[in-house]
Amino acid sequence: MKEESRMLVIPSQTENISVEKVTERLCNSNILKIFKTEKVLKYGAEIMKVSVDIKGRIYDVFLSLTDVMIPDYFRTEHFFSDLDFQKIDSIKYSLAVEIDYKDQFLTTYHDQLKIIDCIVPDKLAVIDIPSEKILSGKWVKLAAQSEVPPSPKYLFTVQGISGDNDEVWLHTHGLKRCGLSELEILGSTKETCSGYYSVIETMAFRMIETEADSEHYEPMFLAWLTERIALVTTLVDWNDALEYYPHATLGYKEDRDDYHSEGTSVIMIYPGPDNAEAKKPVPIQLLDDYLGKNTMLMISTEETDRMRKLAQERIDYIRDIASNNNPDIHILFKIGIKVDKEFLTPDDPDQREHIWFELKGIRRNIFNKEVFECVLTQDAYYAKKMRAGSTGEYGVEDITDWIIIGPGRRYTPDDAYMM
Fold it and tell me: What angle do CA 337, 338, 339 make, to 5 degrees?
């Protein structure tokens, strides 16, 4: 049951989304080309359909005015002040921007934000219907103007439904716009759901990147929980999965609306190769003693590269903060350190371990190159000489992520819209 990606743009002023102004901005855009505009019948009303080209990627964009209605259960993804919400409450109409995701899901999501930023440059918020998220207008603008797409986490949301007891039913919203299965974990508890959240997120990232569902009962390796225990997951149709959870009280047919009854799969695990070969999964609860205990789930090369590009693109925020020399602010860099030869794999001779350093200073070396003087905050696993307290000098090209930690607040490259 695939759905289209429908986003509602709340403008700072209602007149900013008039047909005349939207059409003018589209015609004057330097990020897209219009090659067809027409009025079509959809949802029982006549709306505008605009066919656009963004660097060779063709989209049919459906535009319509709609009332501003934000369900209580939608998640506020970014920071909004009380004044922001007052402004939002004063706006009666939003502009619905809807497109169909065919492939390149993360790129398409990024393009949808670019289209939104083009036609409504002054926006208060964007309501992402598939993922049930409320996005900051400032974040959307910064993301749209970036060369780097946002994190795959923005394409979906993981929700938890609680019962009368400690049980939690975890499931996603948003993956269906990509034509992918929504993911679930049955029989979670309030104590274990954070560890399960990471499992769902990692599997969703993998599916978004590969643009394909994991086939039911096919194994997917996610992490080593110990030297001997691997986390190998698989997907099972929810109807079939329920038989493994006789004590579950949530996730049954009576709990499901149309959305959660079709195109949704339960995450289970294979505790060993024999189970995988026989396609006999077991509940993920078997690994409760290991999940969430500093579990290092595998981040794909694609996601690591995306994070690196975004961190380097927004490095000026680091330079500005560091120049203030505020002792209450700490800056952490994640830097890729080449692993020892004994840990290299044949298919990746430049394999690196990404670990956290604290920035101590920025200077120019004898070659007039900017270098970041850093101290390692943790022992490395795969580069034995790198221990907590080790110092080094690194360039922008070595940085794969960063965090700014201040009194009561921390900022990442994704949060830069707030700085």
Answer: 110
Mean pLDDT value of segment 280-289: 93
Task: Give the DSSP H or E segment for 336.
Answer: strand 330-338
- Contact of 329 with 408, CB cutoff 8 Å: no
Closest by Cα among 233, 229, 234, 247 to 289:
229
What amino acid is encoded at 167 in this protein?
E
Amino acid at 265: S
Provide CB contacts within 8 A for 349, sequence distance 6+: none
Computed over its alpha carbons, how large is the radius of gyration of the chain? 23
Phi-psi group of 195: left, alpha or beta (phi > 0 → left; psi -120 to 50 → alpha; rest → beta): alpha
Pairing outcome for strands 75-76 and 133-136: parallel
Pairwise CA distance, residues 379 & 376, whole Å: 8
Per-residue pLDDT reduced to its tens digit, 8-65: 999 999 999 988 899 899 889 999 999 888 888 888 788 999 999 999 999 999 999 9
Distance between alpha carbon 377 and the CA centroid of its chain, in Å?
Answer: 26
* The dihedral sign for the CA sequence 384, 387, 390, 395: positive
State the Cα–Cα distance between residues 31 and 264, nearest whole angstrom: 36
Beta-carbon count within 10 A of 328 CB: 7
| CA-angle at 348, arms to 347 and 350, nearest 5° | 155
> pLDDT tens digits, residue range 53-102?
999 999 999 999 999 989 899 999 999 999 999 999 999 999 999 999 99
Lowest mean pLDDT among 15-19, 135-139, 267-271, 378-382: 378-382
* Start-end of H helices in 105-192: 105-119, 137-144
For residues 75 and 128, the answer to whether their CB atoms sit within 8 Å is no
Predicted model pTM: 0.91
pLDDT given at position 293: 62
Average pLDDT over every residue of 358-373: 93
The distance from CA 287 to its chain's CA centroid, rounded to whole angstroms, is: 25
Residue 384 has pLDDT above 90, yes or no: no
187: left (phi > 0), else alpha (psi -120 to 50), else beta? left
Write the DSSP symbol of residue 283.
Answer: -
Q: Which amino acid, 294? A: N
Q: In what order do the strands lie in the sheet with 45-54?
A: 33-42, 45-54, 57-67, 93-99, 5-11, 123-128, 133-136, 75-76
Q: Residue 365 CB: number of other CB atoms within 10 A?
A: 10
